[in-house]
Write a structure and sequence with these properties.
The protein is of the alpha/beta class. 35% of the residues lie in helices and 23% in strands. It has 16 helices and 21 strands. The longest helix is centred in the first third of the chain and has 22 residues. The protein is globular, with a radius of gyration of 23 Å. The N and C termini lie far apart (46 Å).
Length: 507
């Protein structure tokens, strides 16, 4: 046992439960008071930033309502905010936000850039990201009355830190920024050490993570499912155990996010043979901590509406002129999410799409990305359709999927169009052809537009599945300096450039 492992004479979870319970009364106000909470959030953001360059340009001081906010302030993509952000990265202050900003979360790029740099203010760190993490714990402890969460350590799997190109601030994966700035007291209940957590080379980091956590009393995990799966398998190899419950017998919950958990659920249930294991979905992006699953038995995440973010929604398929505030959304509809944040993002189009499951309180699921879909033939296939279909097909065929990407194959003079899926299986199906047929059928059952285009194969032929060689997705990520941490494979893409690039690794 490591020398710094604390042995508590009694489980401190009971004390922690009482502390976290104080926050629940605020969260419970989301029901019936969501509109007033969001209106107050908007007023607070405008007041704090009215003396910034951006606030003066759009006259924040005289905006008194959501209506005037929507009329005065334009909707922005990253390209519109990029000149302001670059100045902030060079050290200029009071540009988009009124307090100094020296951290920038590196996120996947835009059409014109390899990477985006999202400003992370002190307020965004404390009042949004850290508070969102605390809210996850508070809601989980209420749901699991038998929890012993704080009797051991939390294993957080994050990315690496690097100095930004302008030399005036620090940038890196959001998880690395969070670890770097975390309250020292939290380090008493988390692993690995900062030195290991902030390593940049994934293969070396993987070994260090495995070596430093075998034998520790791990009760909870936090991170991206795909990367944790790699770590768990490596730990089992090194320990010689059959399932991770033999290594970490007190493991009880995995707080996961970043990608859908559906294709990985069965593999986790096999590798963590613990009937008391819980899986909690979170929606924590570089731009903010947005939502968390608040019911162990039902999917969907509660939107956290008092963490310094004002939400707007564009109905999917409609123009930005149809944007609406939180209190006007409808259950059952898909929307593009637009945020105004305490990090200095003003009416910012994130590119994420969400489906509203209920409105009071507002619960959502992430349905995809505005860029990550396939609509080459009018089928409007979103990521949530793909994830559900993959999970169902794996259950039907006994296969397990580790990674995949898909893109359209366009019509030619000699063939109709189809979808092409490149899939890395951790457990191959007996017949890839049967897997393709069942996946195609499941997509039709989940997506009426896809079903219509597949009717009698008039517009679309049955999809094609290409089994990928082991490790090619990791090789592709490594060659693009994206291996480890929060990086992930684009699941669906309406163009063929990504899948063609990865297919080169399969030949």
């Amino acid at each position: 046992m490591p020398l710094n492992e604390i042995i508590f004479p009694m489980d401190p979870t009971k004390l922690a439960r009482a502390i976290f319970a104080k926050r629940l009364s605020h969260i419970d106000r989301y029901t019936n008071h969501g509109d007033s909470i969001q209106q107050q959030t908007l007023r607070s953001l405008l007041q704090q930033a009215h003396e910034t360059e951006f606030g003066k340009k759009y006259d924040f001081a005289h905006i008194s309502s959501y209506k005037s906010f929507a009329q005065n302030v334009p909707i922005n993509g990253y390209e519109q905010l990029k000149p302001y952000i670059e100045r902030m990265m060079r050290g200029e202050q009071n540009i988009l936000w009124n307090t100094p900003v020296k951290y920038f979360a590196k996120s996947s790029g835009t059409t014109n850039d390899k990477s985006k740099f999202i400003p992370v203010s002190a307020e965004a760190l404390q009042s949004c990201h850290y508070q969102g993490g605390a809210d996850c714990v508070a809601l989980y402890l209420r749901e699991n009355t038998q929890s012993r969460l704080f009797s051991g350590k939390g294993l957080i799997l994050g990315g690496s830190r690097a100095q930004n190109p302008f030399g005036k601030a620090y940038c890196g994966d959001l998880s690395a920024i969070l670890i770097q700035n975390i309250n020292p007291l939290i380090n008493l209940i988390r692993v690995p050490s900062k030195k290991i957590a902030l390593m940049s080379e994934w293969d070396t980091k993987l070994e260090a993570l495995a070596n430093s956590t075998i034998g520790r009393n791990i009760t909870n995990l936090s991170g991206v499912p795909s990367w944790f799966l790699v770590l768990i398998k490596r730990i089992l190899e090194k320990s010689g155990k059959q399932n991770i419950a033999e290594v970490w017998p007190n493991l009880e919950v995995f707080f996961h996010g970043g990608i859908s958990f559906a294709p990985y659920r069965e593999q986790y249930q096999q590798l963590i043979a613990n009937p008391g294991m819980h899986y909690i979905e979170t929606y924590n992006a570089s731009e903010g901590f947005f939502a968390v699953q608040n019911d162990l038995n039902n999917p969907g995440m509660l939107l956290l509406i008092d963490l310094g973010i004002f939400y707007e929604f564009i109905p999917l398929g409609q123009s930005e002129e149809h944007i609406i505030p939180l209190w006007e959304v409808e259950a059952g509809r898909n929307y593009e999410m637009v945020i105004t944040s305490n990090g200095g993002l003003w009416r910012y189009r994130m590119g994420d799409t969400v489906k509203v499951l209920s409105t009071n309180p507002l619960k959502i699921c992430v349905s995809g990305r505005t860029k990550h879909y396939i609509n080459a033939f009018g089928e409007e296939l979103m990521v949530d359709n793909a994830e559900q279909a993959i999970a169902k097909t794996c259950a039907q065929t006994g296969a397990s999927v580790l990674n995949y990407t898909a893109a359209p194959v366009y019509m030619t003079d000699h063939s109709k169009g189809r979808h092409q899926w490149l899939i890395e299986f951790s457990k191959l199906p007996v017949s890839p052809e049967e897997f393709a047929l069942k996946l195609d059928s499941n997509l039709q059952s989940l997506n009426s537009d896809y079903e219509a285009k597949r009717f009698k194969s008039i517009a679309l032929e049955c999809l094609e599945v290409i089994p990928a060689k082991s490790g090619i997705f990791d090789d592709w990520l490594r060659d693009h300096n994206k291996l480890g941490g929060q990086h992930k494979i684009p699941r669906l893409y309406n163009q063929r450039d990504i899948i063609e690039d990865i297919l080169q690794y399969n030949r």
